[in-house]
UniProtKB/TrEMBL annotation:
It comes from Brevibacterium samyangense. It comes from the Bacteria. Its EC number is 3.5.4.4. Residues 22-358 form the Adenosine deaminase domain. Pfam families: A_deaminase. Its cofactor is Zn(2+). Belongs to the metallo-dependent hydrolases superfamily. Adenosine and AMP deaminases family. InterPro entries: A_deaminase_dom (IPR001365), Ado/ade_deaminase (IPR006330), Metal_Hydrolase (IPR032466). The keyword Nucleotidyltransferase does not apply. Keywords: Hydrolase, Metal-binding, Zinc. This is adenosine deaminase. It is an enzyme of class 3 (hydrolase).
Amino acid sequence: MDHELFPTPAGVQADDPILQLPKVSLHDHLDGGLRPATIVELAAEVNHTLPTTDPEELRTWFSAAANSGDLVRYLTTFDHTIAVMQTAPALERVAREWVLDQVADGVFYAEARWAPEQHLTAGLTLDEAVEAVQRGLEDGMAIAANEGRTILTGQIITAMRHADRSSEIAELALRHRDSGVVGFDIAGAEKGFPATNHKEAFDALHLASFPVTIHAGEAEGVQSILEAVQVCHAERIGHGVRIVEDMDVVDGRGELGRLAAWVLDRQIPLEVCPSSNLQTGAADTIEDHPITGLKALGYAVTVNPDNRLMSATSVSREMRLLVDRAGWDQADLEWATVNAISNAFLPLDERERLIDEVVIPGFARISL
């Protein structure tokens, strides 16, 4: 592998067999996955002041700043990444490198979620921003293909919870649904900004038969998940780990509340991001992270990095942590991967093909 094109992802050794496992990344923010050296170069172009211009020191700064245990403070780290993603060339570069970093992580399908409304200060229109990211994603896929690696990507267009542009952003997503945009989300501070504030946008997307995932159950609890699922038509839940507040589990056996049972019985996928949850206070340790108990109860959990830069992580690292510290084995990792691709925002026949042609044989070739 060309390590300049495909650098070893954060948190794993280059010879770790987990790197070779086929993976899916459903919850992976574009503006949370920049390479530090890229941030330094792009910041110089736009005269944006960084905490440091040394790439390795900057990498350390992002990780340390994100380890506050508070979601709002965690989100302030994005001030620097978003600042350098305001032009079409910058968006193209970030998206291209995002794809190559996915390939290095063994990811064969990834959804890049990002909020175009945050990338307009240099004069781009919403549509121009989406088109620039799509060009970058396609460039990355083409480079990977030239190196004998295959990856599929899609954009999840995100509206900000604290803003009032969600209907406009929903229309943007629908305009690009046949040119790379596969889903819609809302993100940002969860407390005080319920998903129901954006019901008009979600109703329009529902009527247009367009896929929706919603950040819920991270900084807020069961009510946030309830509103996302039952009012706003979410097909997947971003994070969702606080669903455990609607159950009483003893020795692996659970008495489930109405919502917890609904989410389980309908296998509504949970896009779980273990390391990120520790940083934002949604969990205390990997050992007692809710993902393992939810897996045992049969929830459709998936394993994701959330923000690769801020959490100094990758899908491979998240999997390695679960194996080393939470008792997961290869069968568990395969099960979570099948959950992920089964619920990707792709046509059914494509999802089934990827399970049969990529996931099952890929896991069969590796022994941890």
